[in-house]
Each structure stands twice: as structure tokens, then as C-alpha cells.
Design goal:
single chain, 6 strands, mainly beta, about 100 residues
């Protein structure tokens, strides 16, 4: 599913995230704090759909990719938003 909006919001695990930019890169933020970027890796993957990946705040490429941009973003948030608790940790995060 292609992301055709320049600005959109995703609610995930009790927080609201903004995506802004496009058409090939969107900044991912929570309350103005940068969490990373959603980037079009390929405009037409094997099934003709755009393939998305993420880029971390430091500029390095994330390890997630896929054609479902929303799932790629949610996976990125689970991995890199400091407000989301690590599911393998017994210590709650500041937001959880």
C-alpha cells in the first residue's frame, strides 16, 4: 500500500506519531521529537508496490523493509522510540 499523503498521524501503543514530508521520505516524530524517517527504498518492488525502509535519527539505515509502510513505521517505533518499553525487559520505560 503506497503512502500518498504528505502528512499523516499514526496512533501506536498509547502515543500519537506524525509523519510529514514525501513523496520519497517522511520524518517520524512524537510530540516534535524525531524518531527517524520512513524512506522509499524502491518505487516498484517485486509486486509493483513501493518498498519502504527506515532511517535512524543518526542517518544510518534501519533494518526493516516492506511494502506496508504502516507496519514498517510501527516496527521502527517499537525498536527505536525510547518511550516504548522493551518487551524483553523487566524494567518499564519512562512512558510505560
Amino acid at each position: 500500500m503506497a503512502l500518498e499523503l504528505s502528512d499523516t498521524t499514526i496512533d501506536h501503543r498509547g502515543s500519537s506519531y506524525s509523519l510529514s514530508g514525501g513523496p520519497t521520505e517522511w520524518a517520524i516524530t512524537r510530540a516534535g521529537a524525531p524518531i527517524g524517517h520512513l524512506v522509499v527504498k524502491s518505487s516498484a518492488g517485486e509486486e509493483g508496490e513501493p518498498v519502504y525502509t527506515t532511517r535512524l535519527v543518526d542517518g544510518s539505515i534501519g533494518n526493516l523493509e516492506g511494502t506496508d509502510w504502516e507496519q514498517v513505521v510501527r516496527g521502527h517505533l517499537n525498536e527505536f522510540d525510547p518511550e516504548i518499553a522493551d518487551p524483553t525487559s523487566d524494567v518499564p520505560s519512562a512512558g510505560g
